[in-house]
Automatic annotation (TrEMBL):
<dbReference type="InterPro" id="IPR016032">
    <property type="entry name" value="Sig_transdc_resp-reg_C-effctor"/>
</dbReference>
<dbReference type="Pfam" id="PF00196">
    <property type="entry name" value="GerE"/>
</dbReference>
<feature type="domain" description="HTH luxR-type">
    <location>
        <begin position="1381"/>
        <end position="1448"/>
    </location>
</feature>
<dbReference type="InterPro" id="IPR027417">
    <property type="entry name" value="P-loop_NTPase"/>
</dbReference>
<keyword id="KW-0805">Transcription regulation</keyword>
<keyword id="KW-0804">Transcription</keyword>
<dbReference type="GO" id="GO:0004672">
    <property type="term" value="F:protein kinase activity"/>
</dbReference>
<dbReference type="InterPro" id="IPR036388">
    <property type="entry name" value="WH-like_DNA-bd_sf"/>
</dbReference>
<dbReference type="InterPro" id="IPR000719">
    <property type="entry name" value="Prot_kinase_dom"/>
</dbReference>
<dbReference type="GO" id="GO:0003677">
    <property type="term" value="F:DNA binding"/>
</dbReference>
<dbReference type="GO" id="GO:0045892">
    <property type="term" value="P:negative regulation of DNA-templated transcription"/>
</dbReference>
<protein>
    <submittedName>
        <fullName>Predicted ATPase</fullName>
    </submittedName>
</protein>
<feature type="domain" description="Protein kinase">
    <location>
        <begin position="1"/>
        <end position="172"/>
    </location>
</feature>
<dbReference type="InterPro" id="IPR000792">
    <property type="entry name" value="Tscrpt_reg_LuxR_C"/>
</dbReference>
<dbReference type="Pfam" id="PF13191">
    <property type="entry name" value="AAA_16"/>
</dbReference>
<dbReference type="Pfam" id="PF00069">
    <property type="entry name" value="Pkinase"/>
</dbReference>
<dbReference type="InterPro" id="IPR053159">
    <property type="entry name" value="Hybrid_Histidine_Kinase"/>
</dbReference>
């Protein structure tokens, strides 16, 4: 279009200052023209003085000649460098550039090239207008500077808002002769439709969450369960706590249970833990080293379990031990113990950890199991676990009238919270918003509080039922459909009440969202549906590969969908790939997007996704075997090729095995069943995949509680084979199942059947003669082969292993049921092993045999066999075997309790590592029942055991703990323990009932009754205990007999002469037996001396009695036996009182009180003092001091695309490769940093070396070693440690927000990436920052910087080659043979295509350029690049080039 009159704006300005009135007239006209375009849904996109004509009447005409594009007036988002799509606000930025120039006569900043202009628009702050024109009004200057905001969100949001302020300036100038100050942008804010982020009606709940966090900061721990209906704001409520946690130095991690894929075990927990590990790498090196040390100490061999589940954790361990294979039950125990320990290592008061698991109603059973363990573990200071639960969607759970689940009941049942009042569990239930709260919400959105707003709020309240999500979506829908609009004439929001009233009451919100989605373009609907099928999170690259759309088009479409308020981009991108990641704003949106497809299309789509993951994305981080099988399974109906079906069956088998290995038995069962259906083979063939699947299914079935079905399957499998070795595998599963169910007799019976098939038969009730015969035969065999045992060969024969596994499996149940039967079993296997060779089972059976004959016959050779077995076991790296052997060593050494308990401690440690909680439990139980130290040490030991075992040991052991705590409370008069643990024993007859609990309870009550003078009661407990001596240790039995004799001696003066005679006879008999004992309670013990003194006292031998009392006190004191010292003093006091030596008696009573107090029997000490008022009462402070001293001393020591921008007219301009020309002259680090800042849009930047050196450029000066340069240390540490990049769209709202530099400098955009220079051996971290605008740095920026690095290294390598060409030729003899071998191996492993890709990387080509060169897709190129990285052992392009040069793969 050609105009014959008027003047172009650039001709009018011509560098002169424009008068304010003239400026306002033109600016108002120009803004009106832009507003008219925006009302037509058009964006000008290329506003500049050369295409704006001012007519003679000063009317403004905007030309739209595409040839007049000018970088000078382009907005930051038009550069294509930030994650914003150009829109109307881009035109407003261009107006700001124009208005600044019109008023000042100069541009806000200057540049000499397109690249420099782009950098200026992104990172250079214009000087205030007042520096050029002091006569300008503050308000007018503020209007212009607001237009020039780098961040689109900080500018005027509409031309209407700008026009209102310009007209107000013109009006003030006309009325007052000047533009006076006023508040700008009020009309702009009022006309802006923006859903508020404020939480309405949730103030109390938010305060409850903050209180829970404050308690975590103080060291307390709790579990908060947030429930409510869909859309009630559960996630938003918890997320509001996130920034508070990070600001206060805590760690906030989260994971979401996926509605579309609930079969991936631990998916939400793993998502949270991956985030935690990423945060750890941002800690200081000292903190990381300390953490690694604590993890190694806490987990031991369990580290391998964590790494198998979470490969990202591998770098937290210097050494990763092999995983010891276990039966399913033991593996589950090990896993449920290890994972909470791993999590707790990251928790302390200074750094509380908050774990948020969203949508718990969709969690897999394995996740619930771990969560249950965490909740019940009270030894977790500083841990706060929060979960959100939707009440409508709990499967297999009774619902109420509103079709909702009782969330509290679900929580109590799933997490086993019944009768667990000591647990800190809080339930927050979110109700629907009230009318008042809905009115507040609507008033806030529409910025008005009037009668008509209240009427609108009332209608919306009844239509939405007060549901926040529905209210949000409905208002958004009404606005986008223009049913609620801003009336610019009336300057207020308007709507048609009749249209609002037509909205149906409380419809299905999913259908509402689906209707909103269907209003989008077909391409957007398609991309949303693909994203919904992938999951609640997805990336642009995967969407591109599935849809077939170019990546750039996909990015544009996803940005547009984001503007629609349906998805959001994840701003904390720290992955090494060059893609953007998105998530649905709510799973109801995901659900609605998924519903836009037919069932047939869903099947086809999942099949496409599954094949893509299988063929092209198998090496991509983020895709696992579970993602692959999930999509392929959903699309399996359309798989016609039998080979592909068999392949999918193998995939499911692999997924099932991984699930089973992580004890996710329900998920494993799901995958195995699908594998069996797809395989459709002959499960009766033991060599088939189907047979292997069936074996795995049986174990999963009984671990899931389906015992009958498991037994039925095992019976079917047994009928498939006559091979005894194969049958033994089936028998082992049955034995493990019944052992898990605590059915020892059945387990042993099955074991007998299995052994009989192997030619072994042994009776269930062997005679004494047979037992003696078997022992004598074995003793003879061991004697004859004594010299051969250490050199027995290891036997790997399958038949021998089958026999060994069976004997090991039934050894403990057989021993518990009958010591005679176990003696026969152990004897025969030892003889068998002497003939056929050694293995783990032989070592254990030899030790078990030694322990049994030691108990039965007292043969001293028994201890020798146990020691010999331990030496044999040293060649087997088995923590499970070590746990068993240490326990047996403890049993034969327990005659000296301190030595035996040391072995039990080692058994516990090894058992916890191998998850053999059977031996952990009996070792703990035996330690407690044989404990001889003071009560304070006993209490500490119990506390340690409860913490170590995490409530995972069997009920008998837990009961022993409870009875021991009750026993301590009786001695110390502590509240909290009642007689509920003992009462049942008083009301039942325990004849022929073998029970460790009973015997220990009898001993505790016998001791208490004796100490407090209730002698008849003591005798009753002694008689009860006599019936339960089987399987008790010798010290425990001797202790009970000791108190029985002491009770008889104390009663002596109160009984008849006939009874006195019986007492003396019993005491003499007991003393004769004690003279034959060694160790605990033997003839040199204080116990023997005290009972001897009591005997002489009864017989009237005062001299010997006095002498032996004194010796008993002295020996007990010297041995540190506080209780025996106290009892000896008390009994001696009784003796001296009978001798009428009152002074001596009082002195001894005082000593007894002191000894009782030091030992922990404070109630007894108080009783003694009360009965002897003449004693000087010790102060409470002294008692507490003694207690503190003893507690301390007795404490247990535990251990891209090409760079481009896009205008509103959707035209793409290829960016000039100016940086490539500049790099041809770039040789040094300072030149590279300067170019990086210039071309990335950074405001400032620095290079940080792994050695701590810092190089920075400030004020466009030269590069220097600048130790004071500010940068996000936590970000740099993460990058240098992991070798991965970090891109933060808004650092203030990221996981790094607590970094001191980030918080103090208010950093917005941050990019940090590893850079390797050819002249440097160690990598540097390139740190770039822009505090002016969010989202400056994108994956494209990173790609450009990587290409710059690769290009610079390429140019440098050319220089080096030229230098070498002028040097003498180096003899090949001087080359390193190691380098040659490494190069040869790498070259051989690289395919021809991979070598071509590697050469293309060295040329500095982008992925797109490589794809064009070889005719490939970008996804295929990425797969090749990942393969090259893996084979070279690198993570980045620059590292690949450096490594290839080192190996002489390129020249």
């Amino acid at each position: 279009m050609v105009f014959t009159e008027g003047i172009l704006l650039n001709e009018m300005m011509d560098g002169a200052l424009m008068e304010v009135g003239t400026f306002l007239h033109i600016a108002i006209g120009l803004t009106e023209s832009v507003q008219h375009a925006h009302k037509r849904k058009e964006v000008c996109g290329n506003l500049n003085p050369a295409n704006i004509r001012i007519q003679s009447n000063r009317e403004v005409v905007i030309l739209t000649d595409s040839q007049l594009t000018d970088y000078t007036y382009m907005s930051p988002e038009q550069t294509g460098k930030i994650n914003y799509i150009p829109d109307g606000r881009s035109d407003l930025y261009s107006l700001g550039m124009l208005y600044y120039e019109m008023l000042s006569g100069r541009l806000p900043f200057h540049a000499n090239s397109a690249e420099e202009w782009i950098h200026a628009h992104l990172a250079v702050v214009p000087k205030p207008l007042s520096e050029w024109r002091s006569d300008l009004s503050d308000s007018l200057e503020a209007v212009i500077m607001k237009l020039l905001s780098k961040d689109p969100e900080a500018r005027y949001q509409s031309a209407y808002g700008l026009l209102s302020d310009l007209k107000r300036c013109a009006l003030l100038l006309e009325e007052k002769g000047e533009v006076t100050s006023f508040e700008i942008a009020r009309a702009d804010e009022a006309s802006r439709f923006r859903i508020t982020q404020t939480l309405f009606g949730r103030e109390r709940e938010a305060a409850d969450l903050r209180d829970a966090f404050e308690q975590a900061k103080k060291g307390a721990s709790s579990f908060v369960f947030v429930s409510g209906s869909a859309g009630s704001g559960k996630t938003v409520l918890v997320r509001a706590l996130q920034m508070v946690v990070r600001r206060d130095g805590g760690r906030f991690i989260s994971g979401k249970c996926d509605m579309m894929n609930r079969d991936i075990p631990f998916s939400s927990l793993l998502e949270a833990l991956r985030s935690l590990i990423r945060q750890i790498w941002s800690e200081s090196p000292d903190q990381v080293a300390k953490l690694k040390k604590e993890l190694t100490k806490a987990l031991g061999q369990g580290a391998a379990v964590i790494v198998q589940l979470l490969p990202e954790a591998a770098e937290l361990f210097d050494v990763i031990p092999a995983i010891e294979p276990l039966q399913p039950a033991e593996a589950a125990i090990r896993f449920n113990r290890i994972v909470p320990i791993f999590i707790k290592v990251f928790v302390d008061k200074q750094n509380p950890l908050i774990i948020f698991l969203d949508d718990l109603q969709w969690a897999d059973p394995a996740t619930i199991d771990v969560l249950r363990t965490l909740v019940h573990d009270q030894a977790r200071p500083g841990l706060l676990v929060i979960s959100a639960f939707r009440e409508e969607f709990a499967q297999s759970w009774k619902k109420n009238e509103g079709n909702k689940v009782d969330a509290a009941a679900w929580m109590a049942e799933s997490l086993a919270l019944h009768n667990e009042s000591q647990l800190s569990v809080h339930h927050i239930h979110l109700e629907a918003l009230s009318y008042i709260e809905v009115r507040q919400f609507v008033s806030d959105v529409l910025d008005e509080n009037s009668a008509r707003i209240r009427a609108l709020a009332e209608v919306l309240y009844h239509r939405t039922g007060g549901n926040p999500l529905y209210l949000n979506r409905l208002l958004d829908k009404l606005y986008r459909e223009n049913k609620i609009y801003y009336d610019e004439v009336e300057a207020s929001w308007a709507w048609n009440p009749s249209v609002i009233m037509e909205i149906p009451e409380d419809p299905d919100i999913v259908h509402l969202i689906e209707a909103r989605i269907r209003m989008l373009s077909p391409a957007k609907i398609e991309l949303l549906a693909i994203g919904a099928a992938i999951g609640h999170r997805f990336c642009s690259l995967t969407i591109s590969l599935v849809s077939g759309y170019p990546l750039l088009q996909v990015r544009t479409l996803l940005h547009a969908i984001e503007e629609e308020g349906l998805i959001s981009r994840e701003h904390e991108s720290d992955a090494s790939d060059d893609v953007e990641r998105y998530r649905f704003l709510h799973d109801r949106i995901q659900q609605a997007a998924y519903m836009t497809m037919s069932e047939s299309n869903k099947t086809s789509l999942h099949l496409t996704i599954g094949r893509l993951i299988r063929d092209d994305l198998s090496n991509e981080r983020g895709f696992t075997i579970f993602d692959r099988v999930h999509h392929l399974n959903l699309g399996s109906e359309k798989i016609e090729d039998d080979a592909e079906k068999r392949e999918l069956a193998e995939f499911n088998y692999e997924a099932g095995s991984k699930s089973k290995a992580s004890t996710a038995f329900t998920s494993a069962l799901h995958f195995y069943e699908i594998a069996l259906r797809l395989s459709n083979g002959d499960w009766k063939n033991t060599a088939s995949l189907d047979y292997r699947i069936m074996l795995e299914i049986t174990e999963c079935e009984y671990m899931c509680g389906h015992t009958d079905h498991a037994e039925e399957l095992l019976a079917n499998l047994m009928s498939c084979t006559t091979n005894v070795v194969e049958r033994s595998r089936i028998y082992l599963i049955r034995i493990a199942m019944y052992s898990y169910l605590k059915k020892d007799e059945t387990a042993v019976h099955i074991g007998q059947q299995a052994l009989a098939e192997l030619g072994w038969k042994f009776p269930s009730k062997p005679s004494k003669a047979l037992v003696i015969k078997e022992i004598l035969l074995t003793q003879s065999a061991l004697f004859n082969k004594a010299n051969d045992i250490p050199h027995l060969p290891i036997n790997h024969d399958s038949h021998y292993k089958a026999l060994s596994d069976l004997v090991m499996a039934i050894s403990l149940p057989a021993y518990v049921l009958s010591i005679e039967q176990s003696a026969v079993l152990f004897s025969r296997f030892v003889r068998y092993g002497l003939k056929h060779g050694s293995n783990e089972a032989f070592s254990f059976m030899l030790a078990s045999y030694g322990m049994v004959i030691y108990r039965i016959s007292g043969f001293r050779t028994g201890t020798q066999y146990v020691a010999q077995a331990s030496r044999l076991a040293s060649s087997f790296d088995s923590a499970d075997l070590q746990s068993r052997l240490y326990y047996l060593k403890g049993l034969v050494e327990i005659i000296n309790p301190d030595e035996g308990i040391k072995k039990f401690e080692k058994s516990i440690q090894a058992g916890m590592e191998s998850a053999n909680l059977t031996y952990v439990g009996i070792a703990m139980m035996t330690t407690i029942t044989n404990f001889t130290e003071n009560l304070y040490s006993l209490a500490t030991r119990i506390q340690e055991y409860e913490k170590t075992s995490q409530q995972l040991v069997d009920g008998v052991t837990m009961n022993i703990f409870q009875r021991a705590k009750w026993y301590i409370s009786q001695m110390q008069d502590e509240a909290g323990h009642n007689d509920d643990y003992v009462t049942p024993l008083l009301n039942e007859t325990y004849k022929d009932f073998v029970n460790n609990e009973v015997y220990y309870t009898c001993t505790c009550n016998l001791e208490i009754a004796y100490l407090f003078g209730r002698y008849r009661e003591a005798l009753e407990w002694a008689h009860r205990g006599e019936r339960n001596t089987f399987l008790q240790t010798r010290p425990h039995v001797r202790k009970q007999r000791m108190y029985y004799s002491l009770t008889l001696a104390a009663m002596y003066s109160e009984v008849s002469p006939h009874e006195q005679k019986k007492i003396r006879m019993k005491l003499r008999k007991h003393l004769r037996a004690m003279r034959r004992w060694s160790g605990y309670g033997g003839k040199t013990s204080s116990t023997y001396l005290l009972l001897s003194a009591e005997r002489y006292r009864m017989e009237g031998n005062r001299v010997d009695a006095a002498r032996l009392y004194e010796r008993a006190i002295r020996v007990a004191r010297h041995a540190g036996e506080g209780l025996m010292e106290a009892i000896s003093c008390e009994r001696a006091a009784v003796f001296y009182r009978q001798m009428e030596s009152m002074n001596g008696a009082e002195a001894l009573i005082a000593d007894a009180c002191d000894a009782y107090s030091r030992w922990g029997a404070t109630v007894k000490a108080v009783q003694l003092r009360a009965s002897h008022p003449g004693l000087q009462t010790a102060s409470n402070e002294g008692v507490e001091k003694d207690k503190m001293f003893i507690e301390q001393s007795g404490a247990i020591k535990r251990r891209s695309e090409g760079m481009s921008w896009r205008t509103a007219g959707n035209r793409q301009f290829k960016q000039q490769p100016e940086w490539m020309d500049a790099l041809d002259n770039c040789r040094t680090m300072d030149q590279f940093l300067e170019l990086s800042i210039r071309y990335s849009g950074a405001e400032r930047g620095c290079m940080v070396g792994s050695g701590g050196e810092i190089y920075a450029i400030e004020n466009e000066g030269s590069l220097s070693d600048h130790r004071g340069a500010s940068y996000g240390e936590s970000i740099v540490r993460y990058v240098l440690k992991t070798g991965e990049s970090v891109i933060l769209a808004d650092a203030l709202h990221s996981s790094y927000s607590a970094d001191p530099t980030i918080s103090s400098s208010q950093s917005r955009s941050v990019l940090c990436m590893p850079v390797l220079f050819s002249s440097r051996r160690m990598p540097f971290a390139l740190y770039l920052e822009n505090s002016l605008i969010a989202g400056v740095f994108t994956p494209d920026t990173r790609t450009m910087l990587e290409q710059m690095t690769a290009r610079m290294m390429y140019v440098t390598s050319l220089d080096e080659a030229r230098v070498q060409s002028d040097s003498p030729i180096v003899s090949s003899a001087h080359l390193s043979s190691t380098s040659e071998e490494a190069s040869r191996l790498v070259v051989e492993s690289l395919t021809n295509r991979e070598r071509e890709i590697l050469y293309a990387l060295t040329d500095g080509l982008s992925n797109k350029e490589i794809a064009y060169r070889f005719g490939l897709t970008e996804g295929t190129v990425k797969s090749y690049i990942h393969n090259v990285y893996g084979k070279l052992g690198v993570k980045r392009r620059s590292q690949a080039i450096a490594r290839a040069k080192e190996l002489e793969l390129i020249n």
